[in-house]
Amino acid sequence: PGIANFLGILQSYPQTEDWIFQNFIQVVYYENTNDQYLHEMTGSLLDLESGLWLKGQYSYCPFFSQYILNREILHQCSKDVVTFFKKMLDNDYYVNLYINHRMLSNTPFYGKEDHDNPVMIYGYDDETQEFLTAGYFYHNLHGFHKILYQDFVQAEKNVRNANDYSNDYIQRIQLLQFRSCIKYAFHKEELLQSLSDYLESRDHTHKLYFISDKKYYYGLSFYEKMAEQFMKYSIDERLVQTLFDQKKMMLVRLLFLQKRGYITKKQTENFEIKTKDIIQNLEIIRNVILKNRMKYGEFRWPQHLKDELVKFVYLTKEEDYLLMKELYESIK
Q: What pTM does this model have?
């Protein structure tokens, strides 16, 4: 929800276009150094961990002011959380917080086991007694949802930390305010630096230096770590989805670069064809994983299927390298 809600807000304001296309090039894979199980980076498109537990992408975006309130303090200072959040909304704040979806009467989780997940409140309707929210209410599908005030009170009060999150951040309530006074201009040199970082599998910003329990891999090395995970640990389609989303956004970025005069129409058409070829490869990898998920799960794949999958991963990496290198040279 962190990255989806974040982009949802930004895309509502035309003045953020330059900042959006300046970012979302890098991808990041992380290893938990104190565990054998590997995961892709959450919020990897912005090479930041998203959500309520770290600084999050909002702290690095000039268009947001961010404030964190502890849930315990809220309950001590206000007995009416509905009125409190409505006041925040009236003052142009977006609200992010964890709630227990088991208490939400019009979702698949209602009345079942505890299910803590973050939501973003962006409005309310007193006539229907509902908050207007965005999040993942139907498993892995992000969308908009209306929550009855009475359901929300119970869902906010009964967060159980059933998913074994850090109790520190699950108790945080994030208040976000868009800064309409900010102006941001696209920088060609910064774009070239991001493309170079991607090609060289590095990060010149060192944003994640303060996290000691993870090791990070950037850019094209994402493919290598994905292949390693497929061979040694688990086969997870979310890794492929990260790259798929990055390339889908690249298609839109190419039009932006053409509009600004950094590449020609002919170059744009060439890059679009090559980007769509990579997207098609990633769709094939993802569909193979989903097709075989019911039969083999994440961990029981036969070796010949792993070999075929990894071979296709490296083939796609080579195509990605050639595309990004050509794009870099064209803009340079």
A: 0.85
